[in-house]
Design goal:
The chain contains 12 helices and 6 strands. By secondary structure, it is of the alpha/beta class. The radius of gyration is 18 Å and the shape is globular. The relative contact order is 0.13.
Length: about 270
């Protein structure tokens, strides 16, 4: 759901193969190695088990058709190559069809540490391990269905829900608070920051508060919401969200907990 990008999508050939250069494969290798070292003890066990089950190549960008086949086998979800930019409706439709929309380009070496747009590393390494968890996959399907049912005036709140769960969510486990959001799991800087830094707030997940919470996409998050289980998310999106959203509209957005954009640099 990114608004702009300087990258171009890679188109699969007639056999579904996407061609990546040696440098692009090296970027994947180096990103993978860095995150693989950072995630243990910080990311939830469901993510680590999912990453192991996917058995992604470490030395090259995986082919989406291979990831799709493996995910279909495990949870009945899948991934689908999309242009760098798609409409919210297309995004929600794919989720409702149990397909995660995945950009096919990978970041340039000069943007190795931070990329505002979601690239194939973020999409596959960040998102797909959690899609091996059936309850989480079911949540995303129902999220897409719910978003398609709602009036357009509620979509910005659904985007906030996605941001604070799928992208930047934390979960409480027996070992402590752990990462499950893809935006954190694919970021070398935000991985330790999200669970160890004293700077951000870590609030218990509450849908009304999430719907009222603004965010910025270009900095480490100032607020994270901590769920108790994936079932909590599924139960939410299978309930009637309209009364909660109407109350959020009535109460209006909470004051930002981050500085205005002109006063802060990108994370």
């Amino acid at each position: 759901m990114a608004k702009s990008t300087s990258y171009e999508s890679k188109i699969p050939d007639e056999n579904g193969i996407i061609a990546y250069s040696a440098e692009e494969n090296t970027v994947w290798r180096d990103l993978y190695a860095r995150q693989e070292a950072l995630l243990p003890g910080r990311v939830c066990n469901a993510y680590l088990k999912g990453l192991e089950a996917l058995d992604l190549p470490r030395d090259r960008v995986p082919q989406l058709k291979d990831v799709n086949a493996r995910l279909q086998e495990i949870s009945g979800f899948g991934v689908e190559a999309v242009p760098a930019l798609i409409s919210p409706r297309r995004f929600f439709t794919l989720l409702a069809e149990r397909k995660f929309p995945a950009a096919t380009f990978i970041r340039r070496r000069e943007e190795f540490d931070y990329l505002q747009e979601p690239d194939v590393f973020h999409e596959i390494f960040g998102h797909c391990p959690m899609l091996t968890l059936p309850t989480y996959a079911d949540f995303l399907q129902k999220y897409g269905e719910k978003a398609l049912e709602l009036d357009k005036s509620y979509i910005w709140m659904m985007q906030r829900l996605f941001w604070f769960t799928v992208e930047f969510g934390l979960i409480r486990t027996e070992e402590g608070v752990r990462i499950y959001g893809a935006g954190i799991a694919s970021s070398a800087g935000e991985t330790p920051y999200a669970v160890e830094s004293p700077k951000p707030e870590r609030r218990p997940f509450d849908a009304l508060t999430v719907f009222r919470t603004p965010y910025r996409i270009d900095i480490f998050q100032s607020v994270y919401y901590v769920i108790e289980s994936a079932q909590q998310l599924y139960d939410l999106v299978t309930s009637d969200l309209v009364p909660i959203m109407d109350e959020a509209k009535r109460l209006k957005s909470l004051p930002p907990t981050f500085p205005p954009k002109e006063e802060a640099g990108a994370a």
